[in-house]
């Protein structure tokens, strides 16, 4: 399963492409940070990022797109740009019949590090370890995009277009888990525990 | 000058096309409210609205696009959809080399009714009067899109792609005003006064 992860942004848009095998092994295909100059008007900036996203989709032909779910932040101008780019990214995916899934930052952190409140450094270090990279991808937007892509493949069990699995393990997930190494099973358990508590937190918020 | 006004929204997206002559006379070309069903996932909804916007651009070939400038609102899910649609609309315009201008709701109200805090009913009634329509365009998203288009043409003096004029009248604006009827001049004065005070208010906010 090939996943395109996108950390949406108008100034810097992280884009990562990852292949994930059924045994959850992940390999890096491509990673890039698309940028648009602040001097340009917003429509021009959006088109610049859209051109880059389309070029990556054409080149790597992913099976699915994973996007960060954007929440309200303190800076209104940032959230507007982020939401606009996420709209553009969704349109690009939809017009190529690519399934799109949204994951919250805490879901991504939980999936990658086993801890929903991990910091950027921990996420970057785990991304490098999972993908067998010698260095942590920089800037953080690049690592975040890769983390999103890995998170998506792991949460859906590597099935392109699959719905996000419920917190409770499905029979298929349990069967998949049976073929994992002990270390992978430990990750899966930690990931699920973190996801469950993350989901519970969100409901309370 | 033909202007496409867009009141962006995921559930209802108001779209109005207006021709505005150099003497500020405005005529209705088309008005429609694009909708997307809430049952659809967001990417599908964005594509539905994008298809509608592209069809209107192809059919009516506007010289400029006027979009409502979106601010933070209380409802986060609404602002996200609105921002995503505005991103998609800007991309569509940019890829056809159409200039895009953003106007705040109070700028539109001031331009159309002479009063930046006019209510929806007053804006609708003035839009109908300006365009010589027998009934107020419904729903409000339709009237708002037309108001945006008229506002844009009037604020830029009917010059496609013109930068938004400063609050102070330029020599060209003054020359244009000389060819207006007394009633039109009264509107222009009221509009300018409202815009100036509106701008002052925004700075203080």
Automatic annotation (TrEMBL), chains A, B:
Keyword entries, A-Z: Cytoplasm, DNA damage, DNA recombination, DNA repair, DNA-binding, Endonuclease, Hydrolase, Magnesium, Metal-binding, Nuclease
Active site residues per record: 7, 68, 141
Transmembrane regions: none
Enzyme class, broadest EC rank: hydrolase
DNA-binding as UniProt keyword: yes
Chief site of localization: cytoplasm
Positions contributing to Mg(2+) 2 binding: 68
Binding sites annotated in the UniProt record for Mg(2+) 1: 7, 141
UniProt entry tagged with the keyword Magnesium: yes
Annotated compartments: Cytoplasm
Pfam families referenced in this protein's UniProt entry, alphabetically: RuvC
E.C. numbers: 3.1.21.10
Subunit field text: Homodimer which binds Holliday junction (HJ) DNA. The HJ becomes 2-fold symmetrical on binding to RuvC with unstacked arms; it has a different conformation from HJ DNA in complex with RuvA. In the full resolvosome a probable DNA-RuvA(4)-RuvB(12)-RuvC(2) complex forms which resolves the HJ.
Task of the protein: The RuvA-RuvB-RuvC complex processes Holliday junction (HJ) DNA during genetic recombination and DNA repair. Endonuclease that resolves HJ intermediates. Cleaves cruciform DNA by making single-stranded nicks across the HJ at symmetrical positions within the homologous arms, yielding a 5'-phosphate and a 3'-hydroxyl group; requires a central core of homology in the junction. The consensus cleavage sequence is 5'-(A/T)TT(C/G)-3'. Cleavage occurs on the 3'-side of the TT dinucleotide at the point of strand exchange.
Family annotation (HAMAP family): RuvC (MF_00034)
Protein name: Crossover junction endodeoxyribonuclease RuvC
Species of origin: Agromyces aurantiacus
Gene (UniProt): ruvC
